[in-house]
Amino acid sequence: MTHLAEEIIENYAAGKLPEPELEIVEEHLLICVQCQDQVEQTHVFIQAFRSASKRLEDSPPSAWDRVRDLVTLHRGVTWTAASAFAAVVLMFGVVPYLVPIGSRNPQRIELSAVRGADTSASHAKTNAPIDLQLDVSDLPASSLYTIEVVDSNGQVLHNLTNEAKSSKLAVSIAEPLPAGQYWVRVYGNSLKTELLREYGLKVD
């Protein structure tokens, strides 16, 4: 037996089916138990969704309330729609509370060669990603540089590659670094056999 399409069932449950199709659908529902169940589940979902929307207007629920309501809406035909709704809830209701303040806007840090006895290091903040801009104007030309970020214990935290544009080599560190002293090393090849420069970076 051929069953009703999901779109037709949803329109029927929502009362949006035009009159010519309505009679055909109802005749089919008289003899098809499976489609009857699908209509009932869809109707329950629509009613629950409308109820949730009404509660949202009256008193906005917490992110956890929205997730809990979503799980109990229904367990059948419209899981695709329910999953999409869950993704929106998680994206806009939960994620903003998990991301540290300031982490959405990377901080731009310029690293220049240390000359003479000057051992000062560039400073970055702990609560945001870092966009490093390395001055490579007087380094040997390379089609692809390798950049290491090393902590004060000598542990390599990041191993990145990029090509220089003009006299700048851009490197992005998406995960904020803890407070401490770091070293940014530039190599002329991917094997890291040729150390060209080491920059100091202080995170506080």
What does this structure look like?
This protein has 5 helices and 8 strands, in the order αααααββββββββ. With 204 residues, it is α/β, with parallel strands linked by helices. The chain has helices at 6-13, 19-31, 33-58, 63-71, 79-98; strands spanning 107-111, 122-124, 130-135, 145-151, 156-162, 168-173, 180-187, 195-203. The relative contact order is 0.11. The strands form 2 sheets. It has a 5-stranded mixed β-sheet, with no helix packed on it. A 3-stranded mixed β-sheet has the order 1-3-6, with no helix packed on it. The protein is 37% helix and 25% strand. It is elongated, with a radius of gyration of 29 Å. The model is unreliable at 74-79, 94-103 and 115-119 (pLDDT under 50).
Chart the SSEs and their pairings.
Layout (H helix, E strand, L loop, with lengths): L5 H8 L5 H13 L1 H26 L4 H9 L7 H20 L8 E5 L10 E3 L5 E6 L9 E7 L4 E7 L5 E6 L6 E8 L7 E9 L1
Parallel strand pairs: 1-3, 2-8
Antiparallel strand pairs: 3-6, 4-5, 4-7, 7-8
Helix pairs in contact: 1-3, 4-5
Mean of pLDDT: 76
> So what's the oligomer here?
single chain
The side-by-side strand order for the widest beta sheet comes to 2-8-7-4-5
Strand content: 25-35%
Question: Number of helical segments?
Answer: 5
Helix content: 25-40%
| Separation, N- and C-terminal Cα atoms | 69 Å
Largest sheet features: 5 strands, mixed
The secondary-structure class comes to: alpha/beta
Give the total of beta strands.
Answer: 8
Order of helices and strands: HHHHHEEEEEEEE
Outline:
It contains 5 helices and 8 strands, in the order αααααββββββββ. With 204 residues, it is an alpha/beta fold.
